[in-house]
Amino acid sequence: MNLQKLFETQAELDALILTKQNLEEVNLKNMILAVITEIGEMSNEWGGFKDWKVNKQPKEGLLDEIADVLSFILVIGNQLHHRGPLIIYPEGDSERNGLVYDDITSQILSLTSYFIRLWEYDEIDEGYRDVLTTFAILTEKLGFTWDEVEQAYFAKNRINHERQESGY
């Protein structure tokens, strides 16, 4: 996993968007709402929280939605200048243990709460590494490897570049 490359790749797209949209900077408040919205879309694709449904199998678009969530996590990280040390706490690390929840719904709510606190208090008290790790744990719980998440992110990034070039 190369987090630095992910951040750099996202920064290139962000710069293109700023130029195309004639903006001076990324609107952090809008990005916080965007990541929360994407977490909701990802949750909907997963569907495991829908107690009212008989068939709770994840939909085919789940990995694409995970890539969208990662995109906005990276945008926000770039805006907050959380560039180092860029790590995701490995399995077995005591720092990681406090970020693991028993179920996927709790893991999703934990991730969402970081961004709500960022908006409310203009900071992420627990640190950006906790955001990255909470997200990584969530993707694992959803059944994806980090390599799969990275591949989906880079594929979506190419699509997002094409969208900008075509006037999306």
From TrEMBL:
Q: Which InterPro entries match?
A: dUTPase/dCTP_pyrophosphatase (IPR014871), UCP030140 (IPR016947)
Q: Which SUPFAM superfamilies match?
A: all-alpha NTP pyrophosphatases
Q: What is this protein called?
A: dUTP diphosphatase
Species this protein is from: Solibacillus faecavium
